[in-house]
Design brief:
16% strand; alpha+beta; single chain; five-stranded antiparallel β-sheet; 631 residues; 19 helices; 16 strands
Length: 631
């Protein structure tokens, strides 16, 4: 009897240990803390609107509270009651009804579309479908809670996967770093599908690969070994692809793995299951809104004035056309531009200041290095995962050469977020805590100031991307109109000079052009992106300052140093290195560093200027040198 009691106690202790494993504790702690905050936080002043939130919030609340996916006056009124203003950046499209009609020739059935007097949301419906129950229960706070739940599931699944073939402490360190030391955790405060897509891909790969890594004899739930988990994985990947089409290639490793194991029929079935869920998402979109492409048709985005705001405010009288019926860009494929831009984008993708893989997804870089080190003894499915990630990135850079980060100047590469989980599953067995510590340390060095203040970083990404080590990384010159600074009208697309160029003041150390020129802050470095219709090889620069100062200038081709004497104009001929973004259009980065500064109102009693200034500059683009050099 005593022996039986001891055995029962040991079994209970083993079960309890499984329940309170480090990974389960981390996921539970995150869920309790972040979930409580999600339910209690205010939405108006604290969070505001970020990215495409207007559309997704209005859509989720419309489905959760009204049971429909069309936009009407109730949705507008509800949104204003929550945020105190209209849904800035809302995407809507005119609805259509679909009527099948029999015909005498192939395909024998044609679909006729007729306009209807309804407006539908011009984004994928998946986030609204998934989050509607919590939106019904808790409104906007329910959407925050939904994101927290998704990330908690990812933490639990990630730990379960790693600990199946690694020690507990290295596993929990790495999985928490993968989420918490990357930009992924920031997107829990975005009421958009980013975290949903991230979680769909993560859980899909977990369902596929968990059974491939668990040692024989370990007691785990039997359903995780069922072949149906591969079909469930394909279904989740299909939904993620419907929501974000760049995820298309992530199904390839799963299908190829079955073919590698000579399970041809199973591989085909998984591919068909994936295709059915992708097509099903678009088919449901067509059934609801009358158009399979949620970004096509008669689609607009709205700022300032919205349909149903007044009798005069209608879809036709307000908004800006914003349809995306195809992704072709003939000029982007011209040979003289294509290869230089692709190489530049590849470098920016890896280490760009605003969207780079290494700074914003450092744990993923650690995962990649670990998998490459172990490549000779790795499994075929890990190689297939790495190939799929690489192919997805290349396609993204080719297909979206000017917006591969996701558009709208997000913190980090928003489009890569749903591809990022695949790298986690390429990690070999972890034998020490070093990979987790390195992942935490590297991520913290680059973006701790971003993930520790996710709301501020989301609302002011052009500020946080200029802090710390990020400041040392190159600016993505091919992405001028998608950089975070584009979100502030006082710093982007400023017309300047003759011949005219466009200026983007990348940081806060350069001030908007004045009649006298452009002031650069004192004892600071200012980066100014210049876009020109032509690519002349020189900048003719004039500099002056009321104080003695030393200025260093660069436009990508060497550095010039100038010692400024008070009140004297200095001339510099600066060679330029242009990046060919489009045919007939180039971009360069002008960097100016000053050694000292002054406050105008302290030098001049009549001045009210409290800025800390260093030097005043003026420049023009030039085809040939004029003989002047740095002094």
């Amino acid at each position: 009897m005593t022996h039986s009691a001891d055995a029962g106690a040991r079994a209970a202790g083993t079960a309890a240990a499984r329940l309170i494993s480090p990974g389960a504790l981390a996921a539970l702690l995150f869920l309790v803390v972040a979930g409580s905050a999600a339910l209690a936080v205010g939405t108006t002043e604290t969070f505001g609107i970020k990215g495409d939130e207007s559309t997704y919030v209005a859509m989720a609340l419309s489905l959760g509270r009204d049971g429909d996916l069309h936009f009407d006056r109730r949705d507008l009124q509800r949104f204003i009651s929550i945020y105190g203003h209209g849904p800035e950046g809302l995407f809507l499209k005119k609805g259509r009804s679909i009527h099948p009609r029999l015909v005498a020739s192939w395909p024998f059935v044609v679909l006729e579309r007729h306009p209807v007097e309804r407006l539908y949301f011009g984004k994928a419906f998946l986030y609204a479908w998934a989050a509607a129950p919590l939106a019904f229960l808790a409104g906007v706070n329910g959407l925050f809670l939904f994101n927290v739940l998704l990330l908690a599931v990812v933490l639990a699944a990630g730990y379960a996967f790693l600990v199946s073939h690694s020690a507990p402490l290295p596993s929990v360190l790495f999985v928490t770093a993968f989420g918490g030391a990357s930009v992924a955790v920031l997107y829990t405060v975005w009421l958009t599908p980013e975290i949903l897509n991230f979680a769909l891909v993560f859980v899909a790969y977990f369902l596929w690969l968990y059974k491939e890594t668990v040692p024989p004899g370990r007691r785990v739930p039997r359903w995780l070994f069922h072949p149906g988990t591969d079909f469930a994985a394909a279904a989740l990947l299909g939904l993620a692809t419907y929501s974000k089409p760049p995820n298309l290639l992530l199904i390839a490793p799963l299908v190829l793995w079955h073919w590698w194991r000579r399970r041809v029929v199973a591989g085909l079935g998984i591919g068909l299951c994936f295709g059915a869920f992708v097509a099903g998402g678009f088919a449901l979109t067509a059934m609801v809104a009358g158009d399979w492409n949620y970004q096509g048709g008669e689609r607009k985005t709205f700022y300032g004035s919205f349909p149903y705001e007044s009798r005069a405010a209608t879809f036709d009288t307000t908004g800006l056309p914003m349809a995306t019926d195809d992704l072709s860009d003939d000029e982007s494929l011209e040979r003289e531009v294509f290869w230089p831009r692709l190489l530049s984008n590849a470098g920016y993708f890896l280490a760009g200041r605003h969207f780079g893989f290494i700074p914003y997804y450092f744990p993923g870089a650690v995962a990649l290095v670990l998998s490459l080190i172990a490549l000779r003894r790795t499994t075929a499915w890990r190689m297939a995962i790495l190939a799929a990630v690489g192919a997805t990135v290349i396609v993204m850079l080719i297909q979206l050469p000017f917006s591969w980060s996701g558009g709208g100047g997000p913190p980090g590469n928003r489009y890569f977020l749903s591809v990022y989980p695949a790298l986690f599953f390429a990690v070999p067995a972890l034998k020490s805590i070093v990979p987790g510590l390195v992942a935490w340390a590297g991520g913290a060095v680059f973006i701790a100031h971003i993930v520790l203040q996710p709301v501020y970083a989301s609302k002011f990404p052009w500020v946080t991307s200029q802090r710390g080590l990020l400041r040392l990384l190159p600016v993505e010159l091919t992405m001028a109109d998608d950089l975070p600074v584009r979100l502030t009208l006082t710093h982007a697309r400023l017309h300047y000079g003759d011949p005219p160029v466009l200026l983007y003041l990348i940081d806060e150390h350069a001030f908007a052009p004045e009649p006298a020129g452009i002031w650069v802050a004192g004892a600071a470095r200012a980066d100014i992106l210049i876009r020109s219709a032509d690519q002349p090889p020189y900048l003719r620069v004039e500099l002056e300052s009321p104080i003695a100062n030393e200025v260093r200038l660069s436009a990508g081709s060497g550095t010039r140093r100038v010692r400024l004497e008070p009140g004297r104009i200095h001339h510099v001929q600066l060679p330029v290195e242009w990046i060919r973004a489009r045919p007939g259009s180039g971009a360069c980065l002008l960097s100016i560093r000053t050694s000292d500064g002054f406050v105008p109102r302290l030098n001049d009693p009549d001045s009210q200027d409290s800025r800390y200034l260093g030097a005043l500059i003026r420049f023009t683009v030039a085809e040939a040198p004029d003989g002047t050099t740095a002094e």
